[in-house]
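Supplementary notes (optional reading)

For those who missed the lab, this is the record we used. Protein: Membrane protein. Length: 321 residues.
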Amino acid sequence: MITNRVIFIDALRGFSLLGILLANLLSFQYGIAGTIDIKDLSALDSGALYFVNIFIGGSFMPIFGILFGYSFIKLVESIRRKKGKSLWSILRRGTGLIALGLLHSLLWEGDFLLSYGIMTLFLLPFINCKPKTLFIWAGIFLLYAQFQAMIVHPLLLIGMGLAKKQAFANMESEKKWYLIGALLIPIGLAVKSFSFIEGTFSGMLMAAGSEILAVGYICLAALLYKTRPVQMLAPAFESVGKLSLTNYLMQTIICTAVFYEYGLGLSGKLGIFDGILFGIVLYSLQCMFSLAYAKKFKQGPFESLLRMWTNWSWHRQSKTK
């Protein structure tokens, strides 16, 4: 049971990195501020921009946030099983993410590792909470977040609650919940689409629609995970997910080298549709790299670095058997 659950979480994390890359390509090409008002687009690029905004933009980072909370609890449980001191390990992990985030932000303004590192420290009071308590706090924070920025993102608490409920441990018995959750996809798409029409609450509608859609995507992925077509692709997603930190940072390194002036300087020249194709090619290359790398090593280089800092152990990465 445990193996199946972890493998699915890896696959979902890998899948979310594809969506994050496609959404971030707008920022790499036009800058974060420039994505608000992109002008003089062809019909093809206009359609591609609409597709990214409705189906992808803002809907994959929430998935990553839920998975971060889920993995946070699994890390705490693993440390405690080994009789380790979870508090100091989590503090070191948080500071490690902060350090990586600060370095990453020197390359690109869209970094989220820094904020996740900071949020890790604020998650400490919730470690021993029951799932119900975590969901209640998440609900309170979700309401409050509509009016005020939050230090602790509610989706991380939802992920923590799901981990404590052993969600995805028995995927066959949970199918009815996945089916119900997948019905959120058309609702999320409708809310996001309406945000482009309604002016007063457009930001709130876009945020709400994005998070609704994210939950729908998670449930649909879980529902389809054991089907034959998905199982053919699953190893690639799983490998990317296991090396998620390395792959995320490599996406930035490669994309800034392609689009920024210190590299090829293609910012704003490739176009949105061709940018999507570029993203798919880049992600496919990451899949091939991750599959080959995972045959020899248990973790990626940045994962190993963070793990050594977290565990205060400088042992070299061992090969998989």
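If you only remember one thing from this example: The CA atoms of residues 70 and 171 lie 16 Å apart.
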